[in-house]
Amino acid sequence: MSPRPKIGLELTYILEAAGEIADQSGMQEVTLANLAKKLNIRPPSLYNHFDGLGGLRKKLAIYGIEKLYKELADAAIGVSGTDAVLALSKAYVHFARQHPGIYEATLMAPNPEDTEVQQAGAKIVDLTVRVLQAFELRGDQALHAVRGLRSILHGFSSLEQKGGFKMALDLDESLFLVIRAFLKGMTA
Amino acid sequence: MSPRPKIGLELTYILEAAGEIADQSGMQEVTLANLAKKLNIRPPSLYNHFDGLGGLRKKLAIYGIEKLYKELADAAIGVSGTDAVLALSKAYVHFARQHPGIYEATLMAPNPEDTEVQQAGAKIVDLTVRVLQAFELRGDQALHAVRGLRSILHGFSSLEQKGGFKMALDLDESLFLVIRAFLKGMTA
DNA sequence: TATTTTAACTAATACTATTAGTTTTATCAA
DNA sequence: TTGATAAAACTAATAGTATTAGTTAAAATA
Fold first, then answer.
1. A188 to chain B, closest Cα gap in Å
2. Which of A56, A153, B110, B157 would staple B96 via disulfide (CB 3.0–4.6 Å)?
3. Can you give the pLDDT at residue A188?
4. In this predicted complex, what is the ipTM?
5. Best of A144, A160, A161 to disrupt the B interface by mutation (most B CBs within 10 Å)?
6. What CATH code is carried by the domain that includes residue B143?
7. Is residue B23 part of a domain?
8. pLDDT by residue (tens digit) across A120-137?
9. What are phi and psi of A130, to 5 degrees?
């Protein structure tokens, strides 16, 4: 049914290699030429594994979203209420710091409306919903709150990554204070 | 001292053309080839106006940041307190909606640490500081608050642009509710 | 009027993704 | 064991990209 490959490149292995390039040099260096070089194959061979550069970006986005989800879900184990939100937030920004390129890839899918990409992202939204459920927000309040939390986390990570925070002021302290204020304001 | 150009391409005119391409087709379509075609010149001629694609991206980032600043500053005229923050927020997300490509360009400078880019961004930070001053936050609280507000605005705009908000729930309502909650939580 | 400077140009190079067609090799079925 | 199949590599070629070098035309200045 399925013959064994000559070299045997697993898709996951390829995506890990692409992720390393992204983290080390940024997404603009994730080219088919650079990826092929890292894998010791020729660029056209990559078309056997995904549909060109666009296909790679899509698969890498999903790979990154799922990797982020795992860390978020793990951070949310055994905690609840404000502690859970803070743990989730900490895990989020830490992921963006440790994997700047993969985090970048997360946002670089050719079509963010793509079903597979949406499904991967939906898991993170669901996780956020669950973590916020302890606050017993009424009606649409819960949905607005999810949008707010996601905005803070993504905005904070993105600005931090782009060097937007110049003040000599502890970053995690800012994040925690902002998250606490947001939760207090939403529930009060 | 300065002879008149043959065609007379002003840098601002070039950046406006680049901005139109960005808004209509996205930043990935802002290539020297496409820009030259729109201006009816040959790609190498563009090197007389900026230092290659990287130089264009930098100048377009500054152009976009200044354009955004003008709209924010205008929105903050004649209002104070919560109203001022809401007006600023509304102007911010509206800019990102009306000029998705230019907003994207704002974040795509080759080196965000570049002095000129930083200076342009500093004006927006200063504006945010001033708008938040009415809340009389103590010490570092004010600085943390600026980071929080910027994170919400950028995160919200970025997620909205990437199609991250799928629920049938009014977007501006979300934004205003989140901003109000944040302000309440920071000042309470 | 002569000089200088700006900003266009052409031609060439190196890199990119991509397609077409080929070859190697492992697996499966007879 | 052998023959067919299918995966996944390959080479060669093409089109599009940024970029550099060197040239030319025209406008402004002295």
1. 8
2. B157
3. 86
4. 0.93
5. A144
6. 1.10.357.10
7. no
8. 999 999 999 999 999 999
9. -65, -40
Can you give the pTM of this predicted structure?
Answer: 0.94
CA angle A101, A103, A105 (to 5 degrees): 70
Tokens for A160?
A: 């931090």
Asked if A155's CB is within 8 angstroms of B154's CB, the reply is yes
Of B145, B158, B177, the CB nearest to A155: B158
Give me the CA A123–C1' C23 separation in Å, rounded. Answer: 43
Number of domains in chain B: 1
CA distance B81 to B131: 7
Q: Is residue A152 part of a domain?
A: yes
Q: Domain residues for A103? A: 60-187
Q: Is there a domain that residue B147 lies in?
A: yes
The owner of tokens 């009606």 is A139
